[in-house]
Amino acid sequence: MKEKILSANPYMPLWEHVPDGEPRVFEFNGEKRVYVYGSHDTLKTAYCGTDQVVWSAPVDDLTNWYCHGVCYTATDGSVLYAPDVVQKGDTFYLYAAEDCGSRIMVASSKNPAGPFENPVETKLGFDPGVLVDDDGRVYAFWGFCGAFCAELEDDMATIKEETFRANPIGHIPNPWQPENDGGEDLRDAFFEASSPRKVMGKYVYIYSKRYVTPVPELGVYEPCNGFLSYKYSDSPLDGYKEGGDISFNGGEIIPQTDGTGEMTFRWGNNHGSIIEIKGKWYIFYHRHTGTDEFSRQAMLEPVDVAMGKDGKIYIGNITYVNGEPVSSKPVEMTSQGAHINGLDAYKIISAGYCCHLTPLKQAYIKPVYEPIEGISSPVVNIQNGTTAGFRYLQFGSISPKTATITASTTAPFTVNLRLDSYKGRIIASFDITSDDTSFTAPLTTGVIGKHAVYFEFLTESDKSTAEFIDFTFDR
Q: Which residues, in sequence order, are CB contacts of 30 under 8 Å at separation 6+?
């Protein structure tokens, strides 16, 4: 029996829904692992849930994730929003956002997986992010539609009032609180998701940006907070300079002839951060499944990090001229995640790993919640013209002879398998009907190496729909 691809992108099992993930590398009992702390989308009809879990992976293998179970529940059983965890000395501190982020508690543990106990209330606010500096001083950042920061006392809970700063970076014009406080910034507009990090000796403030003006090159024409962005400074609490965008969860961006772009995934809010793991940098963020923002999943992509001669920090997909960084843009959203050489085309690949799904607001990835090993998350509500794309697959040095898809339909569909682009050459075609669920077609050309693949669904019936479950290739 064929193996199923696991820990692609999203990197946790497809039944798990952990957004807002703050990645940390901690050493515990002699082993270095990457730990992820986030919300837990278990309510299904609203954001987050009433517990938080910890997942981790060895630094040598970011495709091997393990769930340590529940690490914290709120003191009053309320809904928990985005947390953060830092280490100082031999103690790990969880900043838990109880009561939908309106009450921030700090709890502690001697184990990075928890449980975190002895919670103490703080005066921090929404989406807390904490930085333990190289000299042991501790800085906290927080806020929603307005950023705040301060240094903490040694108890990891109390604000040093004389260090408090409001609006260390500009924020969006707040549609929920329209009064002007002088901190608005239409260019680099802070929305939420504070995450302070130290990069090449600089203080880097990572946050969720809400674009309130169009970004045509990325297909954004309405207010959009699907971005993770950053600014940088030589000091922790002020002096932040313009950085750029690291991640956008709107899927593959298709360039248009007029210089604009077209997104290919249902964007939604974004939250996460960067982390260096064995000399390589990654951005951890989340995507959206279903038809709302209540079933988010943890994603990661490799990123490039560099410093210019003028001290400017570049993070993302960096352009270099004569070896010097000159600009950066968001890294692409992929299906492969930490499988940086591409997903093994000869294993079974869930349709739920697609990173391109057009037209928008038509087909969608159906959330699954049953903790079943290898469960697939299907693409549903497929109609005439739907395309599901996967970036990238690895075919090796010997071409496959056939491709097989698992799908169900209410009427006949033709499915064209395209290579490298949603308009790329057709390398196989399937005729799928309601009489079966498994369909195999021969490849019309050889394929080796690493490629993107796209499944184009066509039907003559205006009312028929299909469900795409998984696919594989065979030599």
A: none
Residue where one domain finishes, among candidates 329, 355, 377: 329
* In a shared domain, residues 314 and 357: no
* Same domain assignment for residues 299 and 187: yes
Give the helix/strand (H/E) hosting 41: none
Query: Is 128 in contact with 233 (CB distance < 8 Å)?
Result: no
Q: pTM surpassing 0.85?
A: yes
Host domain of residue 323: 22-329
Asked if 447 and 392 count as a contact pair (C-beta separation under 8 A), the reply is: no
Q: Is residue 2 part of a domain?
A: no
446 is written with which tokens? 């050889």
Pair (208, 236) in one structural domain: yes
Contacts with 435 (C-beta within 8 Å, 6 or more apart), sequence order: none
Q: What is the pLDDT along the chain (475 residues), one digit of tens a residue?
A: 899 999 999 999 999 999 999 999 999 999 999 999 999 999 999 999 999 999 999 999 999 999 999 999 999 999 999 999 999 999 999 999 999 999 999 999 999 999 999 999 999 999 999 999 999 999 999 999 999 999 999 999 999 999 999 999 999 887 776 565 667 887 778 999 999 999 999 999 999 999 988 999 999 999 999 999 999 999 999 999 999 999 999 999 999 999 999 999 999 999 999 999 999 999 999 999 999 999 999 999 999 999 999 999 999 999 999 999 999 999 999 999 999 999 999 999 999 999 999 999 899 999 999 999 999 999 999 999 999 999 999 999 999 999 999 999 989 999 999 999 999 999 999 999 999 999 999 999 999 999 999 999 999 988 899 999 999 999 9
The answer to the question of residue 41 being in a domain is: yes
Helix, strand, or coil (residue 6) = coil
What is the number of other CB atoms lying within 10 angstroms of the CB of residue 456?
21
Q: Is residue 337 part of a domain?
A: no
Half-sphere exposure of 300 (CA within 13 A, CB side): 28
CATH number for the domain spanning 467: value is 2.60.120.260
Intra-chain end-to-end CA distance of the chain, in Å:
15
